[in-house]
Amino acid sequence: MLPRAAVLLPHAAVLLNGPGQRGGVALKRFEILGPVRAFDGVQELDLGPTKQRAVLAVLLLNANKPVSTTQIIDSVWQDDPPENGANVVQKYIAGLRRVLEPERSPRTPGQLLTFTPAGYVLTVPGGGLDADEFHERVRRSRAEWLDGRLAPAAAEMRSALALWRAEALAGLSGPVFDSARDRLTEARASALEAWAEIELEQGGHATLVPELARLVAEYPLREQLRYVQMLALYRSGRQAEALAAYRDARAYLSDEFGVEPGERLQQLHQRILRSDPALAPAEDPSIVVMAPASPPIPAVALGSVPVSPPWAPPPPYLAHRPPPRPSSAQGWMVAAKIGAVALPVLSLGTLTWMVFLTYAVHRRSKLLGLVSAGYLLLAVTGCVIADLTTEESESSGWFGFAMFAMMVATLGGSVHLALLSFVMPSRARTDPHHIVQIEQRARRQQALQLASQYPAVARELNIGRPDLPRVFDDGGLIDINAAPVEVLAGLPGMTSQLAQRIVAERQFRGGFTSIDDLVLRGAIPIDLANALREHAVALR
Length: 540
Prior knowledge:
Blueprint: H1 4-17, E1 21-22, E2 25-26, E3 28-31, E4 37-40, E5 43-44, H2 50-61, H3 69-77, H4 85-100, E6 113-116, E7 119-122, H5 130-146, H6 150-161, H7 175-201, H8 205-218, H9 223-235, H10 239-257, H11 263-273, H12 316-319, H13 328-346, H14 352-363, H15 366-388, H16 397-422, H17 427-430, H18 432-453, H19 455-460, E8 478-479, H20 485-488, H21 496-509, H22 515-520, H23 526-532, E9 536-537
Parallel strand pairs: 8-9
Antiparallel strand pairs: 1-2, 3-4, 4-5, 6-7
Helix pairs in contact: 2-4, 5-6, 5-7, 6-7, 7-8, 7-9, 8-9, 8-18, 9-10, 9-11, 10-11, 13-16, 14-15, 14-16, 15-16
């Protein structure tokens, strides 16, 4: 595996000897596919404080176009602009000019960062911004792909992805930066899908499998990645694992979002079940031949490319997802809701409390539990009074109260359930904290699956190590074989003494093989082990 620098050499050559050079002097180049950075040739420039970097980021997002002072203020400070905002912007612009054009005298107009009647303009030559270079390389790769030249297409796509160092515009917040970050992250995910498809067409299914496991864990909602993963597993002779990958996808989408996998994924599942001969890799050797006119391009594995995590907030993945199609699971859900609304009428109010108790358990709502108890009291009161009332006393107030209680339990319960089932959203749809919990649990499950199947990849991604730089969102998972004492002590139910015991045990007797091994070796009690299964992993 070649280092990432091998991929970046052609890029550096273009910047220093191609369009990025005039008269033998290297021009400035900028990076936003990570923290905002600027370079003079190969030397990184000190861009100063965070706000000054943010001003530069706004100019880079509008490179070669005028940006007004108001636009800069709104982008950098949002709803809390500073007093004399125009003067503050001028100060940061002056600071950027000193950094980007140190040879310019104070009275001389800038050549790189200029002021026009429409606003400030940052001149960025072709190849001078890594995001533009990323899009250009992706475009060239797709053109090669359409022409059937798979080897150069794959190499070009790998070189495009190698430009990513971390989260785009890392460290900058605000609607403008968040929107740009979402667009760039979506472009990266799309490029990863294209890269995987190209490699699959070249016959690289066996070497793709570990990388696809990581990518599916990173982008669990991208069904195209799951499609390529299933096909790569099947072509590698791992049909059972391909079917298991589909079951994992279906369980994830159904449990977390109530939808079924897309039609294309379902069709692939059926074809794998039938062992469709058309799924076999192409036998035409021309698909793996390099373009004869092109020089050899270093084949850098994507594993050497820095990986950007699914940055907060997670909803960008959901925001770009098309509305789900009606599914059989949704049909059964509607039928169950209709049955729940009808049950109070069919049972004359005696089972209304049971339906509310079911909702209370499902939604984990204490309030619905109290409502269930109230309907149970109404039903019991009405039935007891009606049973004790004789024919002579049917005209009394007690009999009327019993009838009223049963009517409330019947009609009132039915209307209440109709509102609860079809109008009032569940807590999972309205409580942001609960939504975050669902996302975190889903990411932990993805990370646990990745760790069980590909522990080497999991260690490379620092899964379970929140004390190390994060390259993958594992949902807060903790590796009991590597995490330090202070991190272990943060696990649910864990004390400092138990955390120290775990560290001492693994130092003297080696790492643990599983969570159960913690109990067998006397490190923690069994009830704590059960509580840790969702939050801890034992990587070997």
